[in-house]
């Protein structure tokens, strides 16, 4: 079964064609980078998959996540609320709720699997709070748990959003430029934690990055976009200079200088077995 499937998805804003995808199929358990120059349609693609944007009507296009229809022919599925619970999002613009504390934001991740009556009473169980704290610990943010999200830096918010996706136990995570404007160390933590979720929990991750270096270091495959179209889908280790030039065109050299700060390497990159045990990954896989 494919984790994500798009067929015939077109989206126009006014006269501009923002997305034009004949087919895209992503296998479960892969970590896939979406690359392409600014305006290529990366964010538009992710917003379609999460059901935040609907495609043009009349094209009979469809998007499925784990075989369930998210949208078809420009209309959202009736089950969209339930389906969204399976999709974790780490989006730059609307990441966390500013007036809530970081911990409360992470706890929001549990709501999708909370019984209806408790959702309204807004009480979280001790176990949920512990899980949220462990997730914050995992992304190196536990000391900020009580701080209002609006007062956190961009990078701290991104990490909080990753913690929320962990607590949500999402099967698919869409991360739109989760490391844009982060310092190399924060970028490394965010990418590595996404990779940990992917490898230890089998979560399918779709992540857009401008830094090609991070795409090839952390991801299995790369989806290359330009002008709303998918130019290529290939294993991350087969990205070569010619391909990159085809994707980025004349702007490639300039872009390289702009974004290609090398990803720092660390010996302890993968989460330790202890850290993963901490997250109850086994229990999660069994439930
Ligand atoms: N709500 C909107 N209204 C009008 N045009 C839009 C809207 N959203 C996206 N677009 C246009 O669609 C195209 C694709 O935009 P998108 O944000 O998906 O690009 P991107 O690949 O994410 O770029 P970046 O790397 O700069 O984030 C752009 O030309 C953009 O101007
Ligand atoms: Mg974007």
UniProtKB/TrEMBL annotation:
SUPFAM superfamilies, A to Z: P-loop containing nucleoside triphosphate hydrolases (SSF52540)
Alphabetical list of PANTHER family matching this protein: AMINO ACID IMPORT ATP-BINDING PROTEIN (PTHR43166), PHOSPHONATES IMPORT ATP-BINDING PROTEIN PHNC (PTHR43166:SF6)
SMART domains associated with the record: AAA
InterPro entries named in the record: AAA+_ATPase, ABC_transporter-like_ATP-bd, MetN_ABC_transporter-like, P-loop_NTPase
Protein's UniProt name: ABC transporter domain-containing protein
Entry keyword set: ATP-binding, Cell membrane, Membrane, Nucleotide-binding, Translocase, Transport
ABC transporter domain sequence ranges: 4-252
GO MF entry, a single one: ATP binding
């Amino acid at each position: 079964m494919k984790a994500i499937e798009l067929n015939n998805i077109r989206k126009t804003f006014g006269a501009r064609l923002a997305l034009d995808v004949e087919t895209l199929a992503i296998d479960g358990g892969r970590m896939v980078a979406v690359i392409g120059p600014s305006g290529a349609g990366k964010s538009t693609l992710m917003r379609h998959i999460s059901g935040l944007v609907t495609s043009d009507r009349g094209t009979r296009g469809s998007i499925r996540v784990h075989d369930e229809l998210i949208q078809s022919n420009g209309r959202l599925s009736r089950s969209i609320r339930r389906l969204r619970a399976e999709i974790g999002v780490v989006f730059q613009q609307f990441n966390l709720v500013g007036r809530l504390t970081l911990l409360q934001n992470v706890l929001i991740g549990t709501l999708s699997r909370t019984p209806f009556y408790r959702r309204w009473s807004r009480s979280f169980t001790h176990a949920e709070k512990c899980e949220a704290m462990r997730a914050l610990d995992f992304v190196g943010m536990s000391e900020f748990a009580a701080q209002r999200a609006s007062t956190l830096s961009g990078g701290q918010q991104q990490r909080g959003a990753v913690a929320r996706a962990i607590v949500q136990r999402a099967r698919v995570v869409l991360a739109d430029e989760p490391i844009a404007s982060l310092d190399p160390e924060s970028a490394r933590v965010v990418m590595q934690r996404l990779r940990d979720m992917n490898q230890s929990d089998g979560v399918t991750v779709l992540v857009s990055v401008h830094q090609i270096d991070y795409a090839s270091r952390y991801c299995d495959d790369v989806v290359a976009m330009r002008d709303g179209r998918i130019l290529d889908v290939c294993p991350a280790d087969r990205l070569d200079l010619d391909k990159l030039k085809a994707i980025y065109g004349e702007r490639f050299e300039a872009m390289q200088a702009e974004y290609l700060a090398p990803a720092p390497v660390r010996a302890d990159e993968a989460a330790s077995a202890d850290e993963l045990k901490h997250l109850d990954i086994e229990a999660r896989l069994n439930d």
